[in-house]
Design goal:
This protein is mostly helical. The protein has one domain: Four Helix Bundle (Hemerythrin (Met), subunit A) (Up-down Bundle). The chain is built from 4 helices and no strands. It is elongated and about 50 Å long.
Length: 126
């Protein structure tokens, strides 16, 4: 895949994350005891923007490519684990797997740190 197609994929995933985040926000507003859905919504919405930002920074060479892409897709994976676990707990009564939400949250934290590293490191001459 070319870099543009990888970045385009990231933006598509961010759009899906944003749409799911809005849908979960609506569901949480209309269902009793749906605080899990509100948390899942927030994680998806916040990190959809982070995915777009990291993809743009990487595409424009502000964030070093390898680290920037790692952060970009780390945001996608982390938010999916976190939100997916909470949504399953709300609707199915069980999560994805033991420690899925904390694993997703840890991945999100690490992705933010990797994005910071991506911006600190100088680009390779090329």
């Amino acid at each position: 895949m070319t870099e543009n197609s990888v970045l385009r994929l990231a933006v598509v995933l961010a759009g899906l994350m944003g749409a799911a985040g809005v849908a979960l926000a609506a569901a949480s507003a209309h269902q009793p005891d749906a605080s899990r859905l509100a948390s899942a919504s927030s994680m998806l919405l916040f990190h959809a923007s982070a995915v777009i930002g990291a993809a743009l920074l990487t595409g424009h060479g502000i964030a070093r490519r390898g680290f920037g892409l790692t952060a970009t897709f780390g945001f996608v994976a982390g938010a999916a684990l976190f939100a997916g676990d909470l949504v399953l707990r709300q609707y199915a009564g069980h999560g994805l797997f033991t420690m899925a939400a904390p694993t997703g949250g840890t991945l999100l934290i690490l992705s933010w740190l990797v994005l910071a590293i991506a911006a600190i490191l100088p680009r390779r001459a090329g």
